[in-house]
Design a protein that fits this description.
The chain has 143 residues and is an all-alpha fold. The protein has two helices and no strands. The chain has a domain of 66 residues. It starts with a helix and ends in a 35-residue tail after the last helix.
Amino acid sequence: MSSIQRQASSGSDGSATVVDEKKRKRMLSNRESARRSRMRKQKQLEDLTGETGRLQMAINQIQQSINAKEQAYSQVESANNVLRAQAMELTDRLRSLNSVLQIVEDVSGLSVDIPEIPDPLMKPWQLAYPIQPITASADMFLN
């Protein structure tokens, strides 16, 4: 840069100094623009780093929520299996009691009202108990 200024100062007319002044202003403007660009890039990098941290925290929360839901599902499934086993046992007991009632009816000649036991295997699409709707909302997945 000093060689440019020396050449300009060695000239006798003022047009060389005007050109040098324009070059100097352009260089300063370019430096300032480059500085602003570096600052924008630095800010963008910081913003993206912060967003990465927030997203990582959100991922961790979602993973914890998934784990909790899986654990709750396992507990519900286990309880459901217990209830199914109990239902089968009670059905067997009812069949036994119905057979005793049938024997009593046959021996005594009295008419006894023996309830019919629905067989879920014969009509699997017809449940022996009323269907209760399952309600769900988007909020249940956020916890």
